[in-house]
Amino acid sequence: MDQTKKRIHYAWWILLGLAIMVGFAKGGIMTAGGLFLTPVTEDLGVGMGSLSLYFSISSIVTMLFLPFAGKFMAKYNIRLVLIVGVILQAGSFAMFGFMNSVWGWYLFCIPMSIGSIFVTQMAAPVLINKWFKKHNGLAMGIVVASGGAMGAILQPMAGKLIASEGWRYTYIFLGVIVMIVVIPTVLLTIRKSPKEKGLQRLGEDEVQIEDMTAAITQEEKGVTAAVARKSSAFYALLLFFFFITAIGSFGQFVAPFAMGVGYDVAFAGSAMGGWSIGVLVGALAFGVLSDKIGAKNTAIFAMILGLVPVAILVTIPGNKVMFTVAICIYGFVVASIGTLGPLLTSAIFGTKEYGQIYGSAVIGLAVAGIVALPAYGYIAQITGSYTSILYAVGLMLIINVVTIIFAFNGKKKLEAAGLWN
């Protein structure tokens, strides 16, 4: 009996597998895209807005495919789904290195986005909810932090590779290395549910047998997806997802912004490494904070803190040290997308039909990508400046404080109406 208690619960191996998978897929691919914008536009002679339009196409594909992603993960072997996902995502990213026309980005961003939905968006929330009764916030924080940890290594490496070997080689290198690492990791660690290993969720075995029925009932409390989608709380959460994603989308333009201020691509890569360190620290901090003071208070704190880097980047972008500090803080705040998004969803709507509700709410992420990413690109292309974009980011941070308050007020209405049970 003592031996069983000392054994490492398999949930932690699931978390390790998710951390490696998300770390490489996000840190090596998703957040690296911005480093290539300036070199590619200069080499191919296309406008920043025209190239960044592929981000918008990616967001449209994500929005259209998200409603089906949860069903795919529930119906098919999850390891097979994730392996196909990483091949689509990383393989398509590598193919950018062979392209000579902007249409190549428009074409290959489609399979890249479909793969990314499973690998970087859906896998962690779904599997953590299945495997963790305790430490959900910490587990989500660790997964998001893994993207920051790997990004802190891969972003500066990518910046130096672009400077020394060119953007084509770097696209191919990153895509291939992600596949080489992630595919074996998925095969070795990922399992769909504790039943496959003859286990309960982490922490569930601490519940007394006579209280097990009550514990299961408690775990299933919340509102149905049908009720949630008609509530003011859902639309407030949808707006939160939209604005926080629009805020985070500026990360793709940190490198062009840095080069526009006068820095080179190697420094831009280092700055993005700072962004990733901020994501790493923020993800862990938000996971712990949400367990301590709640998702609502943590989210409001994150939005207010986000005003600090905006102020620095508007006023003194030419100072290397302050520029890097600002980008680190910005990354810290953006970590709230991956950590607080799922936690806010469960805090507001419960766990009864969490998967369907979260899958619907994150459409706000996709819509933001459709609007914000090309808008930023065209604004920069037309004005030659990122100042107005930063002012817009500041405004969105303030609006998001309001959306959080509205969302939790909406939860109170659901509870008062007897729909939260």
From TrEMBL:
Q: How does it sit in the membrane?
A: Multi-pass membrane protein
Pfam families, from UniProt?
A: MFS_1
Q: Which residues cross the membrane?
A: 12-38, 44-68, 80-99, 105-126, 138-157, 169-190, 234-259, 265-286, 298-316, 322-345, 357-377, 389-408
Q: Where in the cell is it found?
A: Cell membrane
Q: Where is the Major facilitator superfamily (MFS) profile domain?
A: 12-412
The protein's predominant localisation is: membrane
Which SUPFAM superfamilies does this chain map to? MFS general substrate transporter
Write down the InterPro entries for this protein, in alphabetical order.
MFS, MFS_dom, MFS_Riboflavin_Transporter, MFS_trans_sf
Query: What keywords were assigned to this record?
Result: Membrane, Transmembrane, Transmembrane helix, Transport
What protein name is recorded for this chain?
Sugar phosphate permease
